[in-house]
Write a structure and sequence with these properties.
Blueprint lengths: L5 E8 L3 E8 L1 H36 L5 H32 L7 E3 L1 H15 L6 E6 L3 E5 L1 H17 L6 E9 L2 E8 L6 H4 L11 H6 L6 H11 L3 E7 L3 E8 L4 E3 L2 H7 L1
Parallel strand pairs: 4-6
Antiparallel strand pairs: 1-2, 3-5, 5-10, 6-7, 7-9, 8-9
Length: 269
């Protein structure tokens, strides 16, 4: 029957005996699809009212307002922006969930992509006095979707900045070896207890709810990273020690790498 989705599992037991179990997962997949559609539609519908609210707030804040009013409006603007980030992350996530692989991939200049994120992060980290190290392989591009990769890499870099206290240090690396391409972000920040690591890429999973939401994230960053990587044939590894710091590494298979051609290099000169 073509309308049904079956999942098979083979269990071996005894002297070469096998048990084949088929499970009908049609209903489960339909429910999952309904959930995805609902999230996509709801986030889409929330975009317009939020734009209107933020537009008015900006106009009002351009005027001289009594102090308490000004304070209240600043709060409203801050929270509305937070909601806007949340809505756009929800939309992005539901687009990522809609298909398993990137379709129209292009050679992405990873070096300049990472360089841009690095510059934005150093600017944002100025108040916290973070120092940064940047190490980039120059010879390979990555086949994929630039917007998605930008989103994944910047989430990891901003997280490092967010969860690293004053005067911390952050290292950003992109390198290629026989196993593929790797992008890593290492910080010497607050670190993560081992029991949380396996669940970090779940939507809205947070180690410390109040600290994380105060810091301005949406709780969807690592879920986005995970989906982007799996759409590029890759995966994420997390190494961390509470109180010492963390390393998040994205791995991409060799098939997704391209040697930068010599003429491309000439263009850059
Ligand atoms: P958030 O918006 O809350 O940062 P993420 O999905 O990006 O959401 O991350 C999930 C949780 O993982 C965070 O709330 C935080 O507890 C933890 N986390 C992520 N990156 C780091 C890091 N570099 N150091 C310590 N904890 C981190």
């Amino acid at each position: 029957n073509h309308d049904r989705e079956l999942q098979y599992q083979i269990t071996r037991f005894g002297a070469g005996d096998r048990l084949l179990v088929a499970r009908d997962i049609t209903q489960m997949l339909r429910l999952e699809q309904t959930r995805q559609d609902f999230v996509a539609n709801a986030s889409h519908e929330l975009r317009t009212p939020l734009t209107v609210i933020l537009g008015y707030l900006e106009t009002f804040l351009d005027h001289d307002l009594p102090r308490p009013l000004q304070r209240g409006m600043n709060q409203m603007q801050q929270q509305a922006r937070r909601m806007q980030n949340l809505v756009s992350d929800l939309l992005l996530l539901s687009r990522l969930e809609a298909s398993r692989q990137v379709s129209d991939e292009h050679p992405v200049k990873v070096q300049s992509l990472i360089q841009n994120i690095y510059e934005a992060a150093t600017e944002l980290s100025r108040d916290k006095g973070h120092t940064f190290d940047l190490e980039l392989d120059q010879q390979h591009d990555l086949l994929g979707q630039e917007i998605e990769l930008h989103s994944a890499f910047s989430n990891l870099v901003y997280n490092a900045a967010r969860y690293t206290p004053q005067d911390g240090h952050i290292e950003i690396r992109w390198w290629v070896d026989k196993d593929g391409g790797h992008f890593s972000v290492t910080d010497n920040g607050i670190g993560i207890d081992a029991m949380h690591i396996a669940r970090l890429t779940e939507r809205f999973y947070r180690v410390d709810e109040s600290r994380s939401s105060e810091s301005g994230g949406t709780g969807l960053g690592l879920a986005i990273v995970k989906h982007v990587l799996s759409r590029h044939g890759g995966n994420l590894t997390i190494r961390s020690k509470k109180g010492e710091g963390s390393t998040f590494t994205c791995h991409f298979p060799l098939e997704y790498l391209m040697l930068v051609s010599v003429s491309d290099n000439d263009d850059d000169l």
